Prior knowledge:
By secondary structure, this protein is of the alpha+beta class. The chain has six helices and four strands. A hairpin with a 2-residue loop joins β1 and β2.
Amino acid sequence: MLYGDIQFFDIIIFAAVAAFIIYRLRKVLGKRTGFQKNINETPKPKQSKQSKANNIPSLLENELKLEEIYKKVNDFDHKSFLEGAKKAFEIIITAFNNGDKKTLKDLVSNNVYSAFEKAIDEKNNNPAAQFYSLIIDGIEDAKVENGNIYISVNFISEQMLNNDEASIIKNKDTWTFEKPEKSTNPKWTLTNT
């Protein structure tokens, strides 16, 4: 019995010594609560809106006109714009082919809508047409004027009739998209075709 009591007594002594050491270390070093500023961090320089706007990514040769937008618009991202323009082209052409005026009205300006509406009413659309391929061939123009951003995009599209690859028609179009410069809404409006 005596041997078991000695082990128990040793454990109690070691625990007391450990508690004393922890107590002394906390007293000397202090306790971190998570709200102290890290003194090893160097302060980051604040970026002004102007320096953000001038951060122009590398652009393809046929996209260089977008530099004008990057110089004047803080949060412009050409990759998401071009991806959105490509989707918009496909949606608008598909809506036109199907005679879907409601979809067109939400995506295009009044002038462009009137032209599409007239063509649909005169049966100049073809519901049998569908996309085969679509690429962006480059940026025709890009500018910021009167508080609006204007970007003209060159598209090359191929459409076929009734899933027949022998009926593929290739078209080249230049479309101008517009958006208010200060708008946080990602939606662009087609204003010229």
